[in-house]
Amino acid sequence: MSFFFTVLAAGLIPVWVPLDPRTGNLDPDSVGEAAWRSVNAVMTTNLYGIPDHMQRLAEICRRQDILLIEDACQALDSHIGGQRVGEFASVAVFSLNKHIEGIGGVLAFSEAERRPSLLSRAQTETLHRSLPAILDDAVRPVFRSLAEVTGTLEALRREKPRFFPPKKGRFLHRMEYAPRTGT
Is the pTM of this model over 0.85? Predict the structure, then answer.
């Protein structure tokens, strides 16, 4: 559900589509032709490592000239018909925090000639992180590794709030809740 708020925060209009009851992923065959013509982009989800119907989505998006973005974060190294998830679309997104320490991700471009323009757009539309945030993410795994080696992980957990105070919230990550006033 978090992708819904990310889409809204980006100023885009999300469109809900029916889901395949067996997988919980997009069901492209339940979307009518008129609906496909009304969208500019499709972002897959590949929940819990279960890939979307990627061959079908890729074929529809090619035919309708729709940008297909693969959110391959939870399906790293999953295959469909001999092809890896992340190889079906022009752009694929891989989240590294589910697989290694730290935060961040990778944008993969399957069309080499479009890479510079897509990368430039991604860089201009992505907020740059502050130096303290970058250092925080770099130091945290080092502390954890040291604590594991020295057997002081529990002591470090108790002291963690002194070194890393709880964050107040993520800047521009979540939309502010603004209830409607009046009728």
Answer: no
